[in-house]
Amino acid sequence: MLRYGRAVDRADAALMATIFWPEGTDNHGMYDGDAAGFFERAINARDDAGRARHHHIGVPRILSRDGGRAKVETSFVFVGVYGAGQNDNLGLIEQDTIGFNSGRYRDLFEKREGTWKVLRRLTVYDWSASSAYEPAWDFFNIPEGINRGAIEPRDATYDAEW
């Protein structure tokens, strides 16, 4: 589950391929179809300014397991920063906006040849909010260009040397 947050946040297609089975489906409400299609939609929603997307993934709870299948519920909080003028799957955004939503992933995992992956996902939303976004780098004394997140491979966590 943590790999999912990282894959979407960092637009890491190779990592995303390790999470869902090839025929896996993802119903996020605004999208209901194959999981690869949702990933494509999610990474294309990023604007060229590299605005932030961040998932906080809770502890997965196995609700039931029957042989090679498991029903799993995992809480999440998603935070996204959207740039003014951006026209993505949310429509035209008039001002810099920070959006929040929270809920649970209801996943059906399936085990094949010793590997567990998601076969079906339904996203259940519990709350959402948005407000004007005003960066606070100066408030936190974080200088321009210092270790700010980016999509792969530019993000510092993809560096070969640590």
TrEMBL record:
Domain SnoaL-like per the UniProt entry, residue ranges: 3-121
Entries under Gene3D superfamilies matching the protein: 3.10.450.50
Pfam families referenced in this protein's UniProt entry, alphabetically: SnoaL_4 (PF13577)
Name the record gives this protein: SnoaL-like domain-containing protein
Native species: Nocardia mangyaensis
